[in-house]
Amino acid sequence: MTPASQRLVAILDVDKELESCRTQLRKEWADAYGWLLDMGFIERSDPNSPPDPFAPGQKLTPRGYACAAFADGYPLVLGTVVADGGLEHLTLAEIASWLCLFLREGRSRGPPGRDGRNKESMLQLPEPSPALLETFDYTDELAYHFEAVMRVISYMEVLKDVLLGLGFYEMWAHPISNSPAST
């Protein structure tokens, strides 16, 4: 094989790999789109047409806008609780207490008095209202669900990399590891 034909074969291989990556990215986007649609974060521009993740005019639902407004913490949990009315019957102090659930652990935990304060002199928190307890329960359920889904997705991505690295190409490309059920 001549050097020119070797380069041509290499170029064709790269083109084939690029097309494979494009196809995989489209599939992953379609899966993510379906999940966002099913969970009520986005809505189709035309409800009478079949779902098309590449159609123009897709828009966020109020739940989607609420989630998009939060940049850190658990945006899907925060936005969903807010959009679903979970804070409607809470006082401002209770809302602030609820938001404390999403502080990074390093900032919110630590032994009392480590900053020189006496632990007996720390403020006593008021008894939470039934509405706040209900919001805590709803938040906890959502956080557990979303964390589990995201952890499985993360593990699937790591598993695909490991399988690929070990040369198990057939398992890496197996439909189960690329199915919407795994995401």
Describe the structure.
This protein has 2 domains: 60 residues; 92 residues, no CATH class. The longest helix is centred in the first third of the chain and has 36 residues. It has 7 helices and 2 strands; from the N terminus they run αββαααααα. α2 packs across α3. The two termini are 44 Å apart. The chain has a two-stranded antiparallel ribbon. The C terminus is likely disordered. The chain has 183 residues and is mainly alpha-helical.
Topology of helices and strands:
Layout: H1 3-38, E1 42-43, E2 59-60, H2 62-69, H3 75-83, H4 92-99, H5 105-108, H6 130-165, H7 169-172
Antiparallel strand pairs: 1-2
Quickly list its features.
7 helices; single chain; 183 residues; mainly alpha; two-stranded antiparallel ribbon
Q: What is the tally of helical segments?
A: 7
Largest sheet: 2 strands, antiparallel
Question: How are helices and strands ordered from N to C?
Answer: HEEHHHHHH
Q: What class would the helix/strand composition place it in?
A: mainly alpha
Strand order of the largest sheet: 1-2
How far apart the termini lie comes to 44 Å
The share of residues in extended strands comes to under 5%
Mean pLDDT, all residues: 76
How many domains? The number is 2
Q: Mind telling me the C-alpha Rg?
A: 24 Å
Broad shape: elongated
Describe the oligomeric state of these chains in a short phrase.
single chain
Share of helix, binned: 55-70%
Strand count? 2
Q: Which regions have little confidence, pLDDT < 50, spanning 5+ residues? A: 106-114, 175-183
